């Protein structure tokens, strides 16, 4: 494994502490509006010799469509068997031959990744090359030709130093899930175990030259680790996950189609800025919003990795001629309130119901679903309700709520009201589930509001499952406004009002410093499951919202959150974000 991320290793090669300075000079050379945008987008579902995927083609379609909406001059889309090795190289060269200095080219790949023994000794710190696996690849003989190795991509990008390249790798090469699977469903991941290739067609192709050209051989002979020399200075790389994580295919909450989070997040952010008449997306904004969207879509299971590029690396948006008031290349001033009305759109929340005791009739459990709808597809369901085990699972397998655990009053950060246990029906308790599904629907709607206005929210030390007695810290930063509001939607739908509090010895200021993170320390105590912390930064104090949240505090009132936010955020400039915390005994 490499140290900085599990997408192709060329995106790891940071060139030292001075890289931001030099890249800011490089990428400031041409105004965003003068640059053209191109794209080579690859998606592979249909593998000849390896497990098929469901969402890679959807990902490639979405990115290609978003680039076209952004006014890309040309977008080439290669899928499944059409995405063969020779076509990828020739199409890329056709784009680079058309592009002029400082144009931006997007190279995006969605599909399986893997690793193989390094072709040149000392060329990789891990001793393994990383690769993209194409549809007709097999691990022996001539069909082993159908893959692309990291050194080759590095060499390809270095051929065009005057072009800016955004490299998106929605695949993985090793690792495990951040939290272990618990739900009764199967997940498709975009990785293949390390390969042992026999009669390698690429060895026959390159001979002694090495897959990355003579520079790989020369450096390796000196004992240097070639891939530590830094990503090409004209490249900004985005990988779907860190080394110890896997890319898992999830369900798009809007289309209900199989997807992966990185591609979905990138296309969403690009479309938003197109709609808000921005002239370009800076690398800083892209990194922030893509990271927050991936985290929300996966409940912290994935963390995208960024390497290379600089603060002035911008994706041009040429969807229409720019007007004078758009000269700063930023979204419109109303972008921070745009999602308030969008969040009102109905969110269809589906539940896969399983393990129903024979003694429990459908007319007993179905009304418990409330606003949620049943589905027969456990792969696309937003949640899984195992009635027999009295558990509700998220789409990604986390235990959201365990109906058999004792309800306990907790700390300020995790405070929950004591609830009265319902009488068992058919040998199991089911009444708890209504409030849990209300909570999950509320969470989805808050996520919708947060897609393009979220501050940075980080759970430290990590997003893994945290056990009883551990302490974690919720850290917020990148806020645009000084006034903080914070509350938790607990696993059972209880609202925990957390900030600002004016009660007894607690006298929280309405404003927090803009130039430093805000830290909230949390102790992990029962009851366990999925908590979701909602963070709001606003231009002025939301005293009316604070009063309503205080009145709701300790009550299972998640179904009221959407209306409350509508009342108090309408026409108020704000950021809103949501972060999940999963705990277990």
Automatic annotation (TrEMBL):
GO MF annotations in UniProt: cysteine-type endopeptidase activity
All copies of domain Peptidase C14 caspase, residue ranges: 40-307
GO cellular component, one term: cytoplasm
Top-level lineage group: Bacteria
GO terms, biological process: proteolysis
A Pfam family annotated for this UniProt entry: Peptidase_C14
Family annotation (InterPro entries): Caspase-like_dom_sf (IPR029030), Metacaspase (IPR050452), Pept_C14_caspase (IPR011600)
Protein name as it appears in the record: Peptidase C14 caspase domain-containing protein
């Amino acid at each position: 494994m490499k140290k900085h991320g599990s997408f192709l290793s060329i995106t790891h090669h940071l060139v030292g502490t001075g890289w931001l300075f030099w890249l800011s000079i490089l990428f400031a050379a041409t105004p965003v509006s003068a640059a053209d945008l191109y794209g080579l987008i690859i998606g592979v579902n249909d593998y000849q010799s390896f497990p098929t995927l469901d969402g890679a083609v959807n990902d490639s379609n979405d990115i290609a469509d978003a680039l076209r909406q952004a006014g890309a001059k040309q977008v080439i889309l290669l899928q499944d068997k059409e995405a063969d090795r020779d076509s990828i190289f020739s199409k890329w060269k056709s784009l680079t031959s058309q592009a002029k200095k400082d144009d931006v080219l997007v190279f995006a790949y969605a599909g399986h990744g893997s690793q193989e023994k390094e072709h040149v000794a000392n060329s990789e710190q891990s001793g393994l090359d990383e690769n993209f696996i194409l549809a007709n690849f097999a691990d022996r003989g001539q069909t082993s030709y159908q893959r692309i190795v990291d050194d080759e991509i590095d060499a390809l990008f270095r051929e065009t130093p005057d072009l800016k390249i955004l490299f998106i790798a929605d695949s993985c090469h090793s690792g495990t899930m951040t939290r272990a699977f618990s739900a009764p469903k199967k997940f498709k991941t975009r990785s293949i175990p390390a390969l042992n290739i026999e009669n390698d067609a690429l060895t026959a192709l390159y001979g002694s030259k090495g897959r990355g050209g003579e520079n790989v051989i020369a450096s390796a002979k000196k004992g240097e680790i070639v891939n530590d020399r830094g990503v090409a200075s004209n490249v900004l790389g985005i990988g779907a996950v860190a080394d110890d994580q896997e890319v898992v295919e999830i369900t798009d909450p809007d289309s209900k189609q199989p997807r992966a989070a990185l591609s979905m997040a990138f296309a969403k952010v690009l479309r938003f800025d197109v709609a808000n008449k921005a002239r370009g997306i800076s690398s800083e904004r892209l990194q922030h919003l893509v990271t927050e969207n991936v985290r929300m879509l996966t409940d912290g299971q994935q963390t995208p990795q960024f390497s290379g590029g600089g603060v002035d690396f911008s994706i041009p948006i040429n969807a229409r001629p720019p007007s004078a008031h758009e000269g700063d290349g930023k979204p419109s001033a109303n972008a921070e309130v745009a999602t308030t009305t969008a969040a009102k759109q109905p969110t269809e929340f589906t539940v896969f119901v399983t393990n129903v005791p024979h003694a429990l009739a459908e007319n007993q459990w179905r009304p418990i679903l409330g606003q949620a709808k049943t589905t027969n597809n456990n792969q696309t369901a937003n949640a899984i309700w195992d009635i027999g085990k009295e558990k509700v699972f998220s789409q990604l397998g986390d235990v959201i709520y365990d109906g058999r655990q004792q309800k306990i009053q907790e700390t300020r950060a995790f405070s929950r009201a004591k609830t009265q246990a319902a009488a068992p029906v058919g040998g199991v308790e089911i009444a708890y589930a209504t409030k849990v599904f209300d909570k999950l629907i509320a969470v989805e709607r808050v996520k919708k509001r947060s897609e393009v206005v979220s501050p940075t929210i980080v759970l430290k030390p990590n997003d893994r499952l945290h056990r009883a007695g551990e302490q974690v810290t919720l850290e917020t930063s990148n806020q645009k406004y000084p006034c903080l509001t914070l509350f938790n939607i607990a696993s059972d739908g209880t609202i925990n009002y957390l900030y600002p509090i004016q009660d007894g010895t607690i006298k929280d200021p309405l404003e927090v410093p803009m130039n430093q993170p805000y830290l909230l320390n949390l102790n992990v105590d029962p009851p366990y499951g999925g908590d979701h912390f909602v963070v709001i930064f606003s231009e002025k104090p939301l005293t009316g919202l604070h009063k309503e949240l205080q009145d709701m505090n300790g009550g299972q009132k998640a179904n009221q959150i959407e209306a409350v936010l509508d009342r108090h955020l309408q026409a108020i400039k704000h950021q809103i974000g949501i972060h999940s915390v999963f705990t277990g005994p």
